[in-house]
# Entry
Amino acid sequence: MKKIFLLPLLALAGLFPAWTAHAADSSVSVRFSPAQQKEFLGKLEGNLKASRTLQARFVQEKHLLLFQDVLTSSGTFAFSVPSSLRWEITSPFHSLLIMNGRELAKYDYIKGQPRRLKLPVADALFEVFGQIAGLHQGKFSEQAGKYELAVYSGEPARLVLVPKNKKMRQFIPAIEMKFTPALDSVSSVRIREGESDYTLISFEDVRLNPELPAGLFAPEQK
# Structure
């Protein structure tokens, strides 16, 4: 499967103490106290829950130590509560992932025509998409069971999530999220995939509570 923002994801390793210290120092930021973090996450959760639908463009950059060039792709993202997601890459190739309730579908486009693909890791992708839906709804208390959460000061402040599961940390040491100044949507997500490799997804032209077209999240595409 072509690389997209999923922790495998999404998709979107036991280096947490060293990595978070570096993250804080590199941007001259300070980790919030427990009280500050609770207040910040409470405000963030309330703001994110106010959006029932969301639509945005994204640019995804894959940074790999073994390659000099950055692998870049772009496309569109849409979300509707409680669990509908559409992740469509339009450049440099055309690919589509859709989650609608308990249904999950992936398409590649050949000469403009959609071709549905088999998903041998459908259960894992569904779990990841469910986590993404939860994060976009500000369900950080639910994520606290799976991640260590830490907030660092800055413009904007950063939320760092580190998997508690040791096996998952081998592939995803940490996930860093930044938000808009109004704390009403995600502005970027950085997925650490090792000491040097990472994927950065930046969201642009974010629209909150837009009226989405009928069929946007239909698993069957024509």
